[in-house]
Design brief:
heterodimer, A: mainly beta, four-stranded antiparallel beta sheet, 11 strands, 53% strand, globular, B: mainly beta, five-stranded mixed beta sheet
Chain lengths: 114, 109
């Protein structure tokens, strides 16, 4: 158990809909990262937040947005969903935001878009 | 972005050492080399990281070439629980973790 929690575990929805994925980082961790893992693209970094502020952006679509709240939990919002958005979404957290910090990954949310 | 190249798959026998190679010929001086692994149906987990010197921890050892263009993750005694996809990642000052396809390690009893 990494200490990172993600809800829900599974989500099934239809094309065109909007969903919100939630992540609670490990106690004391200030950075939160979001990743998407699909069969054809592998693990892709989406976005990073550090202490409430966006720190780095990866391959995140404009239809997707995220935020980190004052209590440090984070939400990833996916809108106008397409079939290709079906994937595992992982959240990770680390103490700081440096390139030596260990990232601890949650168990993931499996999104299925029908 | 600096990229890494790993074999798609490797096999090992249980209780034997495993050497997982990674090439990163375009690595820059400030890039750290990280290894993560992903067990079936789980999120990735940290294994080890280093910059220039070889590193050891309770899970594995990391051997880094003198020119830093390649590295090797060493599992000293593979167990069935070590069967996973192993990712070699370069992290620069931007801190992005760019995962490649990784190496799928199969451990045979």
């Amino acid at each position: 158990d990494s200490g990172v929690t993600q809800t829900p575990k599974h989500l099934i929805t239809a094309t065109g809909q909007r969903v919100t994925l939630r992540c609670s980082p490990r106690s004391g961790d200030l950075s939160v990262y979001w990743y998407q893992q699909s069969l054809d693209q592998g693990l892709q970094f989406l976005i990073q937040y550090y202490n409430g502020e966006e720190r780095a952006k990866g391959n995140i679509l404009e239809r997707f947005s995220a935020q980190q709240f004052p209590d440090l939990h984070s939400e990833l919002n996916l809108s106008s969903l397409e079939l290709g958005d079906s994937a595992l979404y992982f959240c990770a957290s680390s103490v700081e935001a440096g390139n030596t910090d260990t990232q601890y990954f949650g168990p993931g949310t499996r999104l299925t878009v029908l | 972005d600096a990229k890494t190249t790993q074999p798609n798959s490797m096999e090992s026998n249980e209780e034997e050492p495993v050497h997982l190679p990674c090439n990163h010929s375009t690595i820059s001086g400030t890039d750290y080399i990280h290894w993560y692994r992903q067990l079936p149906s789980q999120g990735p987990e940290y294994v080890i990281h280093g910059l220039t010197s070889n590193v050891n921890n309770r899970m594995a050892s990391l051997a880094i070439a003198e020119d830093r263009k390649s590295s090797t993750l060493i599992l000293h005694r593979a167990t069935l629980r070590d069967a996973a996809v192993y990712y070699c990642i370069l992290r620069d000052r931007n801190n992005d973790m760019r995962f490649g396809a990784g190496t799928r390690l199969t451990v045979k009893p």
